[in-house]
């Protein structure tokens, strides 16, 4: 009921003359008034609740978009920090793309935020935030570009000195906005509660007045007609005041809407500036796929100006080959393709598409974001090439070669074909490197690759496997054909002469040939077989071709030694070695005390003992002797240190390989073991083989003189086997000469051995060396050695070796069986 209806009601009321009529009208007015008050009160409270909900919803949306902007801004900083500490270019590129993606999400959140209304205080902070973002965004792009270019130090400096303060300022503005929104929500809630309370109180007051009025009318309606008129007048005045208030409110809403339109116009202008300044191209279309807008970057990428592209079909302005067909109302995932620009040149581009929704949620067009990734594509291709090719020679590398071999082996399982694998190892390459330097070595490798390539066919696969090692895969050729072609490669390399700075070098190549058929199942087995064949070619004199055959004796020996390598390494890891002691006793006429030789044994997996002649050749060939020597010295000296009181005055003889003599680190290791074990150097005799001592004379002299200064003694083992120079022997400060057992075993029947032992005794005594004979297996040999002048003897005829745990210094006096132990 509006004000006019109330005025029309008031006229007949004043003209009522009958009390009954006044009573009827009065009660009618009271009932109508109560209903009106209730409706107005409920309407007011509902309106206030709706306004409060609207305020809360608006502020919630603001907080949501602010949170998204703050999260994306923080993620961009985090991705930059990750990029600073990543090494892999792919990981850096992935983080850079994530950094750019967060920028798009930031812009979308900011656009949604800008669509809302703001208070002057909020608008001021938002303006400041826009300015801070305009400062921070270029810094972010600069840091990202520096990282991608590899300028990490400059990127870190820029991030610490400029970007971090800018980000801190942005975060503070985000915090200020959140605080402003929180205060605004709280104030709105307080105002709503106050207005609600006022309305509630006003409604209660009016209801109370109506109740009082109804009582007064029921008691004094006839006499208080004027009071009824006054009540009606008051109601009319209240309604008029409410109408005036609502009119004022509507006026304010109109003014607010005009302000919002101005803000939207400002935001549109700001959006145009933003789109023009971002690094990606942006194109928008209408619902008919006609171009409506291009930013500056899109103009540069496509070659179309904004005015020329306006209202043209998207496929004409943005023709992307190998890309998705872009249709309105269809979300297309990010993709890449080749863009044909207006001038017919091409670019590699990356594009992402989103549909624009209208107010009715129908498709109103599209937004296409495009990025020029031509340089990134070139970099990716270059990295892919480098990952599969050798940088020096341009050949494929070992990894790629193994991949292609693996594919070929898989094909062999399904089809019958013959192929050949050549494993090439250059001979005398180290001479060129050591003589002329690595530049000459690199030049030689490049020239040899070109030389070998002339012997290859189109289907052959040529790869560099290592420093001076190469692999050739000959496809679809019989074994004999592969052998002839391998020989042709060998001869071409042999005939080649390498010249460098007036020096001429002859080089050769050792080639291992393996036939490929459907019996091979693993690339590792193929390489192992080829490597074995190549090794045998080198062992037989180098510069030759050797065909791998599993039944070949040399192949079986090498593969057996290679199997020993794994067993020995596992035994070292599991500590499955053991020391045994065998006495070396003086013969008649010698005043030297007995001492004991530490002999090495290995426990097999089943616990059985393995003697050194079975595993030492493989250990020497494959470089495990230093580790075994360390194990022997550590345990022998440790045992001697723990039993130095029981074995006071006794000595232990320990064997040492020639490799360890040349290792300066091993000398320090021995000195360290003396220190930590507590063993006395005076109680140790170190046995060196004659060949190792004289082949490494300078190193042996340094090793012997250093440890003799500490108190150690030395023995020259297997003497006579290597035909050493007497002048060198005279210079070596050893204390014992141990005659090789080969001269002792048949001394009773072979006069040559007898004369040889006599000569060694005479020579050794003339230079003050004690003579020791090993392999003394019976009393007759012991007697003859005494007659020839041998000082000390060792062998089964003296005593058998005993495990170190059960060894007793009286062991030398026990009876021993008549059997031979080869040490």
Describe this protein with a few key phrases:
single chain, 823 residues, alpha/beta, eight-stranded mixed beta barrel, six-stranded antiparallel sheet, 25 helices, 58% helix, elongated, disordered C terminus
Question: Could you explain how this protein is built, in words?
Answer:
With about 800 residues, this protein is of the alpha/beta class. The protein has 25 helices and 23 strands. The strands form four sheets. The protein has an eight-stranded mixed β-barrel with strand order 14-15-17-18-19-20-21-22. A hairpin with a 5-residue loop joins strand 15 (about 595-605) and strand 16. It is elongated and about 165 Å long. The relative contact order is 0.04. The model is unreliable at about 5-15, about 325-335 and about 810-823 (pLDDT under 50).
What radius of gyration results from the CA coordinates?
50 Å
Shape: elongated
Helix coverage percent: 55-70%
Q: Which whole number gives the mean pLDDT? A: 80
Number of strands: 23
The percent range for strand residues is 15-25%
Any low-confidence stretches, pLDDT <50, length ≥5?
Answer: 5-17, 325-333, 808-823
Per DSSP, the total helix count is: 25
Largest sheet: spatial strand order: 14-15-17-18-19-20-21-22
Task: Give the assembly state of these chains.
Answer: single chain
Distance N to C terminus: 125 Å
Taking the sheet with the most strands, its summary is: 8 strands, mixed, barrel
- Give the class from helix and strand content and strand pairing: alpha/beta
């Amino acid at each position: 009921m509006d004000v006019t209806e109330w005025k029309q009601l008031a006229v007949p009321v004043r003209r009522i003359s009958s009390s009954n009529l006044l009573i009827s009208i009065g009660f009618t007015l009271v009932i109508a008034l109560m209903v009106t008050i209730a409706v107005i009160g409920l309407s007011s409270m509902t309106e206030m609740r709706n306004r409060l909900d609207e305020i809360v919803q608006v502020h919630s949306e603001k907080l949501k978009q602010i949170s998204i902007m703050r999260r994306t801004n923080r993620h961009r900083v985090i991705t930059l920090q990750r990029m600073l500490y990543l090494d892999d270019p792919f990981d850096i590129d992935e983080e850079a793309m994530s950094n750019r993606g967060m920028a798009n999400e930031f812009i979308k959140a900011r656009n949604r935020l800008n669509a809302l209304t703001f208070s002057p205080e909020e608008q001021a902070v938002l303006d400041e935030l826009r300015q801070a973002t305009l400062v921070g965004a270029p810094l972010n792009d600069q840091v990202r570009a520096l990282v991608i270019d590899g300028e990490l130090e400059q990127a870190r400096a820029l991030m610490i000195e400029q970007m971090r303060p800018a980000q801190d300022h942005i975060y503070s503005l985000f915090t200020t906005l959140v605080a402003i929104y929180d205060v605004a929500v709280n104030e709105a809630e307080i105002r709503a509660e106050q207005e609600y309370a006022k309305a509630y109180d006003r409604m209660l007051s009016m209801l109370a007045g109506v109740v009082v009025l109804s009582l007064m009318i029921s008691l004094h309606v006839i006499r208080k007609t004027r009071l009824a008129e006054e009540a009606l007048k008051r109601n009319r005045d209240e309604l008029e005041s409410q109408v005036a208030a609502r009119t004022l409110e509507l006026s304010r809403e109109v003014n607010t809407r005009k302000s919002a339109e101005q803000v939207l116009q400002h935001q549109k202008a700001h959006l145009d500036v933003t789109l023009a300044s971002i690094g990606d191209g942006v194109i928008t279309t209408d619902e008919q796929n006609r171009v409506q807008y291009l930013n500056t970057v899109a103009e540069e990428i496509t070659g179309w100006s904004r005015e020329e592209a306006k209202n043209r079909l998207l496929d004409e302005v943005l023709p992307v080959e190998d890309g998705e067909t872009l249709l309105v109302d269809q979300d297309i995932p990010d993709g890449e393709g080749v863009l044909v620009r207006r001038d017919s040149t091409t670019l590699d581009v990356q594009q992402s598409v989103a549909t624009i929704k209208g107010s009715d949620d129908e498709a109103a067009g599209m937004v296409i974001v495009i990025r020029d990734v031509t340089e990134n594509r070139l970099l990716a291709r270059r990295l892919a090439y480098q990952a599969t090719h050798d940088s020096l020679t341009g050949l494929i590398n070992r990894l790629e070669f193994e991949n292609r071999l693996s594919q070929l082996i898989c094909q062999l399982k399904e089809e019958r074909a013959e192929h050949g694998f050549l494993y090439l190892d250059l001979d005398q390459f180290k001479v060129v490197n050591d003589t002329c330097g690595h530049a000459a070595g690199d030049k030689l490798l490049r020239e040899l690759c070109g030389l070998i390539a002339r012997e290859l066919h189109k289907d052959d696969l040529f790869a560099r496997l290592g420093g001076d090692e190469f692999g050739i895969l000959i496809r679809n050729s019989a074994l004999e054909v592969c052998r002839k072609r391998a020989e042709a490669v060998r001869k071409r390399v042999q005939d080649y002469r390498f010249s460098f700075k007036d020096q001429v070098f002859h080089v050769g190549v050792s080639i291992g040939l393996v036939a490929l058929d459907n019996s091979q199942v693993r690339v590792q087995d193929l390489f192992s077989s080829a490597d074995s064949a190549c090794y045998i070619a080198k062992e037989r004199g180098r510069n030759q071709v050797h065909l791998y055959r599993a039944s070949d004796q040399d192949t079986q020996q090498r593969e057996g030694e290679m199997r020993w390598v794994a067993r020995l390494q596992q035994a070292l890891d599991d500590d499955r070695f053991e020391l045994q002691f065998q006495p070396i006793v003086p013969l008649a006429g010698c005043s030297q005390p007995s001492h004991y030789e530490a002999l090495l044994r290995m426990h097999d997996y089943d616990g059985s003992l393995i003697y050194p002649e079975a595993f030492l050749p493989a250990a020497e060939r494959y470089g495990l002797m230093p580790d075994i020597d360390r194990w022997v010295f550590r345990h022998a000296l440790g045992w001697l240190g723990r039993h130095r009181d029981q074995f006071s005055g006794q000595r232990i003889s320990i064997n040492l390989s020639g490799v360890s003599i040349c290792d300066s680190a091993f000398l320090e290791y021995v000195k360290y073991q003396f220190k930590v074990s507590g063993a006395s150097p005076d109680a140790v005799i170190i046995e060196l083989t004659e060949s190792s001592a004289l082949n490494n004379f300078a190193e042996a002299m340094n090793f012997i003189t250093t440890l003799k200064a500490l108190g150690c003694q030395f023995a020259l083992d297997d003497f006579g086997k290597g035909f050493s120079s007497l002048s060198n022997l005279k210079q070596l400060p050893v204390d014992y000469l141990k005659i090789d057992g080969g001269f002792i075993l048949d001394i009773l029947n072979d006069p040559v051995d007898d004369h040889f032992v006599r000569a060694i005794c005479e020579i050794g005594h003339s230079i003050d060396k004690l003579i020791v004979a090993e392999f003394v297996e019976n009393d007759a040999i012991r007697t003859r050695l005494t007659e020839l002048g041998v000082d000390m003897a060792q062998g089964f005829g003296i005593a058998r070796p005993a495990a170190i745990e059960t060894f007793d210094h009286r062991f030398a006096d026990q009876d021993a069986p008549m059997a031979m132990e080869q040490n």
